[in-house]
Amino acid sequence: MSSVIQAKFKHLSTIYSMILNLAQFQGILDRIKITRTKLGELLFCDNPSHFIALAMVDEKAVGFVMYNVNYSNICFNETPGLYIENLFIQSEYRHRGIGKGLLTYVATQAKEKNYTRVEWWVSHQNQPAINFYKSIGGKALDEWLIFKCEEACMNELVGESNEIN
Could you count the other beta carbons within 10 Å of the beta carbon of residue 46? Predict the structure, then answer.
């Protein structure tokens, strides 16, 4: 039998291991920068900005969803929503409804706080996930492109004059 629980500090090592498994699955293990200690400080502090729920099967954590409060574009969304950063289920537990259970948990958290949406990103290459999200009523926002400005971009912007021509 499976259930979803809010993670506690005692789950930190398991959570960190699953994050590494997710990164390995996505081929980005070399890009993980967070340490287990820093993750614990962020998740289990007095006023956390990120939250994790665990999927449990027979008292064993087999998946997780990491989410945070999102105030995306207040001109159109006057209330906050929840943004799912990561969703992961160990491969041997996939296709059992666990992913839907984790998403249901996050949706329930959003509704309890009167938030108006739950959002997430998915890689164009992850067709099984895209199919799953569409099957539960998720809507792809194809009209938007995601841009990111990392260190080199920020350095260039900061190095430029702030004057308007």
Answer: 4
pLDDT at 78: 81
The separation between CA 39 and the C-alpha centre of its own chain, rounded to angstroms, equals 14
Strand order in the sheet with 60-70: 2-6, 50-57, 60-70, 81-89, 118-120
Domains plus CATH for the chain? 2-139 (3.40.630.30)
Q: SS3 of 33, please?
A: coil
Output the pTM of the full model.
0.85
Structural contact between residues 98 and 53, judged by C-beta atoms closer than 8 angstroms: no
**Where are the strands (E) in the chain, listed by range?**
2-6, 50-57, 60-70, 81-89, 118-120
